[in-house]
Design brief:
This protein is an alpha/beta fold. It contains 16 helices and 14 strands. The structure holds D-xylulose and cobalt (II) ion. Residues 186, 230, 266, 294, 337 line the site of cobalt (II) ion (CO).
Length: 443
């Protein structure tokens, strides 16, 4: 049974190809900086956007035409698994990601939900035996069902806290069963709507306790995947506790969790927090906390999470620059937490969207690799901070001076010379590298 029979396996055909169902830049076996593109980019398909999103928004119902539309419940869930593996194979992606509710419908009771999950997990496991596509991460959806209206691990009601724990416990068991390389926590409802009804300290302490219990359980069952926190400042909640990487890091450090977690950085969440994507990646990287990436892009004219497929080459280049400086993503990957627009309702749009995203990150990888090989920014930065490599600067970084000596130094100064930051020149160089990549690929 084929669900995408009109489309054959997507091949790399090079930049001059006019075939819409071909990669123009993503060539999985091509080596860039000593590793194949497939090894560095570690692409993943997000189950929720690609197989369960129906195209509804707050003003309208679903628009998507999908081969499983005529089905419901477990029958639909099973067909989605079959279609998903056909999609993974045609796109040749190494990974996928899911929330519990994406793969199987919730039952009337928690026990029924578990039963549904067990059946689909067994099916996924069977398909994974013959597929190259592995599980990058799974997570618990503790935000959609009305029970989470006041939060999950930060809910004011201890029964809800327990229910959230049960779902994460099950999630860790599924992660272990399917060999997930990571486990993600995104706290969509872990925050508040108003401080007037909120015990913020208790909620944060409870969140810390929740994560410790999750770590204990992972250890107990021998799940060794990386734990990841995915920061987002708001939406659906007005204020979310994992606001951005810096806030998340302070939380992890305070609750003695920093050695056991890393961050899953999402582009659109970064911009919602008032940061660039590369700012969040760098904050995670310089703290040794860059674990994985949700690859998408927002719309700067809109103040909400639009989860568009990434096509902005500046953004993919600067993201890959951070990822290469990080020495890669380790057990993480680039997960397309991205959805086709409501107007792109045909099944073939799912292919166009992923091809566009994969090609955009492939270009980003090539350009970032050249920038690093030529040490374009590194040499400039080294020169800019040169004063810290000798004299008083060296003493500062070696911790060998104090305010008395620094005052003496300052009093002795006659001529302080600042140098230009060359902001515009550097941006022009970035353009040159991007254009050179484009020109060399069309030739
Ligand atoms: C929501 C979001 C989630 C997480 C997983 O904005 O990004 O899909 O990636 O729960
Ligand atoms: Co995400």
């Amino acid at each position: 049974m084929s669900y995408f029979s009109a489309i054959s396996k997507i091949q790399f055909e090079g930049p001059s190809s006019t075939n819409p169902f071909a990669f123009k830049h993503y060539n999985p076996d091509e080596k860039i900086g000593g590793k194949t593109m497939e090894e560095t980019l570690r692409f993943a398909v997000a189950y929720w956007h690609t197989f369960t999103f129906e195209g509804n928004d707050s003003f309208g119902v679903g628009t998507m035409l999908r081969p499983w539309d005529h089905l419901s419940g477990m029958d639909q869930a099973k067909v989605r698994v079959e279609a998903a593996f056909e999609f993974f194979e045609k796109l040749d992606v190494p990974y996928f990601c899911f929330h519990d509710v994406d793969i199987a419908p919730e039952g009337n009771t928690l026990a029924e939900t578990y039963k549904n999950l067990d059946e689909i997990v067994a099916m996924l496991k069977e398909y994974m035996k013959t597929s190259k596509t592995k599980l990058l991460w799974n997570t618990a959806n503790n935000f959609t069902n009305p029970r989470w209206l006041h939060g999950a691990a930060t809910a004011p009601n201890a029964d809800i806290f327990a229910y959230a724990a049960a779902k994460v416990k099950k999630g860790l068991e599924m992660a272990k069963e399917l060999g997930a390389e990571n486990y993600v926590f995104w706290g969509g409802r872990e925050g508040y709507e108003t401080l007037l009804n909120t015990d913020m300290k208790l909620e944060l302490d409870n969140l810390g306790r929740f994560f410790h219990m999750a770590l204990d359980y992972a250890k107990e069952i021998g799940f060794t995947g990386q734990f990841l926190i995915e920061p987002k400042p708001k939406e659906p909640t007005k204020h979310q506790y994992d606001f951005d990487v810096a806030t998340g890091l302070a939380f992890l450090q305070k609750y003695d969790l920093a050695d056991h977690f890393k961050f899953n950085v999402e582009a659109n969440h970064a911009t919602l927090a008032g940061h660039t994507f590369e700012h969040e990646l760098r904050t995670a990287r310089i703290n040794g906390m860059l674990g994985s990436v949700d690859a998408n892009q927002g719309d700067m004219l809109l103040g909400w999470d639009t989860d568009e497929f990434p096509t902005d080459l500046y953004s993919t280049t600067l993201a890959m620059y951070e990822i290469l400086l990080n020495g890669g993503l380790g057990s993480g990957g680039l997960n397309f937490d991205a959805k086709v627009r409501r107007g792109s309702f045909e099944a073939e749009d799912l292919f166009h969207a992923h091809i566009a995203g994969m090609d955009s990150f492939a270009i980003g990888l090539k350009v970032a690799n050249r920038l690093l090989e030529d040490k374009v920014f590194e040499d400039f930065i080294a020169e800019r901070y040169e004063s810290y490599t000798k004299g008083i600067g060296l003493e500062i970084v070696q911790g060998k001076t104090n305010f008395h000596q620094l005052e003496q130094h300052a009093l002795s100064l006659r001529d302080i010379r600042n140098t230009s930051g060359r902001h515009e020149r550097l941006r022009a160089i970035l353009n040159q590298y991007l254009l050179a990549e484009q020109l060399s690929s069309v030739q």
